[in-house]
Amino acid sequence: MAFLELLVLASMPVVQMLLIGLVGAYLASGFCNVLTPDARKHMNKVVYLVFISSLTFSSLAKTVTLQDIISWWFMPVNIGIIYLIGGTLGWIAVKILRPERHLEGLIIATCSAGNLGNLMVIVVPAVCNEAHSPFGDPVVCRNRGLSYASFSMALGGFYIWTHTYSLMKNSGVLYKKMKAAEDVGEHANGWGNPKDGGVGNEKDLEAPLLPSTSPSHDGAEAAEQSFSAEPSSSWKHKSNILKFLERARESALHLAKELMSPPTIAATLGLIVGATPPLKSLIIGASAPLRVVQDAIKLLGDATIPCITLILGGNLTQGVKKSKLRRSIIATVLFLKYMILPASGIAVVKAASKLGFLPDDPLYHYAILLQYTLPPAMSIGTMAELFDVVQEECSVLFLWTYLVCAPALTIWSTVYMWFLS
Hints:
The chain crosses the membrane at residues 6-34, 46-64, 70-94, 106-127, 147-168, 329-351, 363-384, 396-419. 76% of the residues lie in helices and 0% in strands.
């Protein structure tokens, strides 16, 4: 297939996503004011709890077999490689650009954590629906593509709520420490809070500027105070251990919560049903006695893609605001995200294919290549709100990365299909 034909083919799902996203942006704007923040919040809960779970279960249960699960072992490894390369690139960018310290976690997270669920569910089946798709029969391709996207979604949640969650949490802790230090610095000036007129209280004004040199404070007492003011090294060691255990406990709780989330449970059940022929024959197939259950679940899952895209378009309107984020940071993130990372993905997938790590299905190769080209995970914005840190900067980065994603995803998707053909 000619490169121009592949370019047109690759642009179709992106154009569809843009059109539905524009509808969502209009519904969230002040002209319509239908998708308000509260409405998007409640709609997102329904999508998360019902629609995505239904789509994940129905697609995996219908198409996956035990042999498929074994042959897909490279996908979790591939996502780990993406996090490793993206995190390293983000760390290098942080060292070169030297942004504010509380922004470092956001930059690294944006470079490493991709939208491994929602956009995969949108793009891969849409490519299969095109008449001249290089991946064979549209129905078979769509079912296989949804299985790959669902598996990617389940794996992505594990990485996001461990690695990315830790980055954003550390940024939130650091930001609170910085704010506390600024408040202490304002009080140390002796003039009080500037919001109160810049005048301190009387006790601050009457306090002596130099420490007392009364002879009653002899050297022994001063030494005793100095010794008591600093904790012993053993106490510091115990304190560090306690902090480490507390962080480990919180990470384990959030990981357990993510593993018990409805999409992850649906993915697990779908894999079990797909890999177990007796269970699969109960609900999958025209003669299955419980086929109505699969039909109902599939009907719910069909609402996932339009709802996700509407919410995505509405959320991106938050990025149209002023922010102190430097243009050099935005340009660097875009360059790393849409130039270096996809190019490295081709090298990784080509090497894995030569070593025999990948199944022969070209659609599987396309799916894991696409994982290198995705914009940041929307969960980063959720974590920014959770820890009350870099929310405006996150919205601005999301706006630019998702706008540039449209041409970048089209071009790289064309390159991937040309590379695989």
